[in-house]
Amino acid sequence: MTDEDLGSFADFGGRGDDTSADEGDNADGDDAPTDDGTAGGTADDVAGATADEGTDEAFERVGYDGADGDGLGVLAVSEGLRIGEREDETRLRAYVTSANRSNVRLGRYLVAPYPDGESLFCRIVGLEYGQRFHGDDANEIHARRVMGGNDIDEDDYTFIADLEPVSVLYRDGGELRRRMPDRVPKPETVVREADDDEEIKTALKIPDSGVFLGHLAVGGEKVRTGATPPTIDYRVTDDYETGDPLAFRHTLVAGGTGSGKTHTAKNVLRQFLAAERTYPVEAGSERDVRAAVVQFDPQDEYAQMHDDNPEADTEDERRWEREGVAYGGHDDTVAFVPKVGNATYTAAHHDAEQIPFTVPFSMVRSRPWLAASAGLNDNQYPALRTLLKRFFAQHGNGGTYEEFCAFLDDPALKEELDESGRIHEATYEAVMRRVNGMPNGVFDQDARPITDLVREFVKPGRLSVVPTYHVSDSRATETVVLALASLLVDEKLSSDPRFPRIADTPLLVGMDEAHNFLADADTVQARQVIGKFTDAAKQGRKERLGLFLITQDPQDIAESVFKQVNTKVVLNLGDEDAIKSVNIPPSLAEKVPYMETGQMVVYSPDNSEPVELLGLPTCLTRHGRG
């Protein structure tokens, strides 16, 4: 409402500053207190009346264009100003001036300076409008006036931002450092939006170098600074100077269909394959080598990393070069194609070399659980081990799956073991059914055994992709993946490895749809597999073995493996159980169901504060079948 809406008081026979009516209502001369405790009106009302006494402009509004300087507003003490050890003990609120309100968003980072040069780095966790003056805006007249097109006057309202302290920034010998919030800022301190690259990275503990994941973002928009480039790159530490590389403390990429999960995984894996990324051959060694990456690929998408992305233009490449991001097809990418039964593999969507292989039955000798088509109980598994031991003692490592089936189909053997009390007849028959129930053509096919290809399969700087999309039987796929993955893990953890190439090479094992292979179950087989990968996860940093798990169902991954994962990259997930299982801070978890493609949150406690990122919109290598 403006002065023009009110009209002139002169029409009613009085002046704008006439007090006769008040005198009539309050004959004893005492001013009645108002709601805010100021006698006769607010201090501003009194000051305005005094300044304009004797004029017709007693209620003229004073205009202004926001605060001077680069601040957003000031810290308010109307409800207290407090920093506490617990989150519920902290009260930190900022009044945002009217000119700045449209640009303020939840999650944005603000800085409140201390008088001595230190500063408090904060995050906006709440935004609230409040009434500046006593009034009722919930009425028909007000609603009709607003609906009629009148603009909202921001000066009629307060706008308060609730702040969460993140860290205190200070200089030590010229170097910017951070510490936990331990002091309260002064009342009415001017707060500004954080816009300095060094300031933001230090406050959030983001490393300057390492594996690139994306750009820092808030609400789906990149955080901008005054630097060149204006974006803030987020990296995961990957050297021994600041601790163990987080690659060997394991990574999870979780996201639903269409979230950009594979796109993101390819971009991250491409960084591990950069020519300059090397690791010591062993602890204390001065000789560094590149890591080998083995990627299990149920959808046949990762061999495309051999090729350049035809959708990337010159501007994309210049931007990636400026930010130190490895890009382009990785020439040393090889598809190791499992030969299973009559399944055929076609690869018109990539130009990577293809090497067929078979899983030799000899691998079952130290991994009995590979030989059964269904779950074994606590009686059947020891029986299978006994039978395999006896079989390989007779046939040696050259024994085949077909020969083992024939070996079991011997009534005399069954009778002997039953009468001796070593294997009950019913148990024997159950084991034989499960062995005979294995999918056709998993073992000993017409191709080189993978055990003869180890030096090609695990090679520094090589991306070895194992596609299984062409294998229609899920049990056959599971057997192939677990056979190869357990070979890698066993050799890494062995004190007397059979294949020194695996033991001596830093290794990243990527597993897409990891929930299909590392799920908790009650069978002996599942316990064996989970136990093996749990040991691998625990000893990964010592043995330079990293797990890179990709899934849309993180809640199905065995807890003993999951809790060893340090870095969690979470894209859009719509399932409540899946979101809960990744165990990220609630403020970030609430955003997950609403995130767009490529938008992600990263929770890596040993690397940085929990943050939101935007991945690269263009894949660094070829991606998609189009």
UniProtKB/TrEMBL annotation:
InterPro entries: HerA_central (IPR002789), P-loop_NTPase (IPR027417), T4SS_component (IPR051162)
This protein's UniProt keywords: ATP-binding, Nucleotide-binding
Residue intervals of the Helicase HerA central domain: 246-484
Comp. bias intervals (Low complexity): 35-50
GO molecular function: ATP binding
Region (Disordered): 1-50
Bias (Acidic residues): 19-34
Transcription regulation keyword on record: no
Database matches in Pfam families: DUF87
Highest taxon in the source lineage: Archaea
Protein name according to UniProt: ATP-binding protein
Organism: Halarchaeum salinum
